[in-house]
Write a structure and sequence with these properties.
The protein is mainly alpha-helical and 62 residues long. It contains 3 helices and no strands. The chain is elongated.
């Protein structure tokens, strides 16, 4: 007699199912060109200590 193969449960592949919705091409900005133009992502020194709450700038003076 031939042996029966055990039945294996198949799980759906969610990566393949949703890959066309999630994986999209994007246009990236050229950071080298932006740096030459003077653009910086995090601008430093924009605020004075007068804008900060009392408890925060009190510790900066120590």
């Amino acid at each position: 007699m031939a042996k029966k193969k055990p039945v294996q449960a198949t799980l759906p592949n969610f990566v393949a199912k949703y890959m066309h919705e999630v994986n999209k091409s994007q246009v990236f900005t050229d950071r080298k060109k932006d740096a030459k133009r003077g653009y910086s992502k995090h601008k430093k020194g924009r605020f004075s200590h007068d804008d900060l709450p009392f408890c925060l700038w009190q510790f900066c003076q120590i």
